[in-house]
Amino acid sequence: MVDPRQVTHFRARAQQLDRAEGTLDDTAVLDIGVQDTGPDGGRWALAARGVDVAALSAEHLVLLWTVRGAPHLYRRADVGRVAAAVEPFSDADAGKRIYDAARPLKAAGIGNLAALDEVAARMRAIVTEPTVKGDVSGRLAEVMPQPYLRFCRPCDATHLYEMPFRLAAVRAGLELRLDTSPPVLERIPGFTKAGAPGDAFDLVRAYLRLLGPATPKHVADYLDAPVKDVKARWPDDAVEVRVAGEFRWLLAADAPALESAEAKATRLLGPFDLFLQARDRATLVPDAAHAKELWPVLGRPGAVLVNGQLVGAWRPRKSGRTMTVTVRPWQKLSAAARTAIGEQAERLAAHRAASLAGVEFTA
Question: Cα dihedral angle (87, 68, 170, 165), rounded to 10 degrees?
Answer without folding.
Answer: 120
